[in-house]
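Running this now, will post back.
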Amino acid sequence: MGTIIQYSKDELNSETKNWFAVFTTPRHEKQVEEYFRILEIESFLPLTRAGRRWKDGSKGIVELPLFPSYTFVRIGCGERIPVLSVPGVLSIVGGGRKSMSISDSYIHFLRKGLQEGKIEPHAYLESGTKVRIRSGAMAGMEGILLRKKNDFRVVLTLEMIMKSVKVEVELDNIELVGRSSNFDLSQIEEAV
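Update: finished.
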């Protein structure tokens, strides 16, 4: 028979913590986030503002999850069970005992980009002109370059949850991945 090992909260908090994507029941992201707050589990639910019009003709601004059905938690390996026991949580992305963690820099990038109003949801992309952001809070992030009239956007993708965000960038702050930094602007796809 196996032995049950109990850890104090201090012992669990002393281990290395990483960010993980948590898959939730659709439209339960905010409730899950509230449970995490009550349980003192560090979490992050990226929200974006969107205009809505209701059946009665009234308009308003609502906060919607940037990645529908996903939120993020920062936990150690001993904290998986409390996360999975929260109502509305379906799984920790990556499955099994070896879930795939998300870098601290990606979470920092999301927070900063949302705070500055430079991130908006975008359809998931797999191919296109691959670029790297050279400077600013998002330096080092790689994504797909799009052009919308005279503005440039980089679509950054979180592969493990198959979700993407669109970020405004200055053309001189990006470079092609794997090629020289001089490229023809006429080759850039027009964003929809």
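Residues 1-102 form a domain with the Alpha-Beta Plaits fold (CATH 3.30.70.940). More later if anyone needs it.
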